[in-house]
Amino acid sequence: MFDDEDREDGQHFATSKHKYDLGYSNTSKQLEDFSYDDCYRPPIEPRVLLEIVEQSNSLMPLISIMATNLTRFGWEVKHKSSYNESACMDEIKANAEAEWQKLSELFAYFNLTESFESLMYKALVDYYSIGYCTIEIIRTADGEDIAGGEYARAANFRITGNNLDQYAYINTTRMINGDEKVIQAPKKFRKFIQMLPDGKRRYFKEFGDPRMMDFKTGEYVETSDVASEILFITSHNPANVYGNPIWIGCLADVLASRKASEVNLNYFHNGCIMDMALITRGGLLTKASMQALQGAKGTNNAHKIMVLEATAKSGGIATEDLPLPDIELVPLTQTNKQDATFQTLQQRTDEKLAAAFGLPPIYRGQSSDYNKATADVARILTEEQVFAPMRREIASHFNMVLEYEMGLKYCELRFKGPKMADYESLASVLQPFIEAGAVTPNMLVDTLGDILGKELEIFNDEWGNVPLEQLKINQPENSSITKSVDDIDELLSKLSEYM
């Protein structure tokens, strides 16, 4: 962290000794509060949803699980599936390497104070809390390149509805009849707004909008007050433009669970009573006894004995004409609740919420009947049906825009996931192909890289794409290639045994 006096302006970062040009056009344009005006109203006020999440004992842990599994494994820049490095010309390889370097640097230094995965974690907490999230994209001083981004508190942003009839044109590359062509495509871009009660406004344009916007007026004009962009990710809802959180169908259960917790809490304040009462008959309760009765509640009185004193009905000392007060000990513990109420309600609420998020009990630490086989199946199914598709969805919001913004053809952003491969099953599948010599060295590079936890380069020589047995046949027995193939064959056999 650096003090404010170390900062000069949006384009430079200065310390006591050095001044660095970061290429930023300006600092973040965000405001810190919001009030409605010329914008779409969300179906439920986002701040209300945030309050519900904050007060729920189930929602925030589930949201944290989702955001953690989607972002905390990190990110990577990978070549697209259509890119075949071994079959490419040197010029294409050089372009692909330049793309990889540029994209890697962008996300490695996306924010000055936190990592890209930490920024995305916070954004996804918003997404699963209120149904959408926002990330502010900041450009370089000339406005041509992306310099980085900032987390934008989604609850402060609204979508305006006054520019839906306006189109912008973007240049995008498409394959037409086998030929690569650049076409101009019309696209509608949304406009976002923050507004304070005192009338201050900040306008933002949607990420990828090529038009210049004034952040003070929201107009598309040439200006020095250039608006930054918002990457808007929403949980699609046909009924509104903001989307709804995936747990909205369980809203009544969440509210009921909260009320049940409040009832249980109130029990400890007002519901606890003493274990027994000492009662006297044939007299009048003293003032002190009346006060003791009225104060007989709360946890401080638990396991105490209440003593009730009485005097003769005449107010004097008991005589032969006045019977002695009768004393009786009455147990009261049978009216105490032995456990909190609504346990079934809260259990059912947890189950409904977990189903809405698509999370099995093992992810929530709520089951002890798992073994390795069932745990692996639960993890694999959840990864395939919940986490992996969502990682691709999030990455696509960046990749679709960066493709025409940066002219990307060969590389793309991906969010990493856990190592889920069943290497034992994989080894049994590969073994017949390895023994038959149908496997090329390059076919196993990615698998070996996954096992070792590192990215390995493929063999660029022609023999890297030739089956091992065929290489042995085509080369003399004492050639270096044959020896290399024998070494690889031996390595594959050992690797298969290891897996």
Q: Major beta sheet, specifics?
A: 6 strands, mixed
Distinct helical segment count: 13
Number of strands: 18
Helix content: 25-40%
Class by alpha and beta content: alpha+beta
Between the first and last Cα atoms, what is the distance in angstroms? 46 Å
Low-confidence stretches: 1-25
Overall outline: flat
Spatial strand arrangement across the major sheet: 6-5-12-11-10-7
Q: Please compute the radius of gyration using only Cα atoms.
A: 34 Å
What is the beta-strand fraction? 15-25%
Q: How many structurally independent domains?
A: 3
Mean pLDDT: 79
Explained architecture:
- The chain is α+β, with helices and mostly antiparallel strands and 499 residues long.
- It folds into three domains: 4-248, no CATH class; 273-335, no CATH class; 423-498, no CATH class.
- It has helices at residues 46-55, 59-71, 90-108, 116-130, 251-271, 287-294, 343-357, 361-364, 372-405, 423-436, 445-452, 468-474, 480-498, and strands spanning 7-9, 12-14, 19-21, 75-79, 132-139, 146-152, 158-159, 168-176, 179-187, 191-195, 201-206, 229-234, 276-281, 283-285, 305-307, 310-312, 326-331, 411-415.
- The chain has a six-stranded mixed β-sheet with strand order 6-5-12-11-10-7. A three-stranded antiparallel β-sheet has the order 1-2-3, with no helix packed on it.
- A hairpin with a 2-residue loop joins strand 8 (168-176) and strand 9 (179-187).
- The protein is flat.
- Residues 1-25 have low confidence and may be disordered.
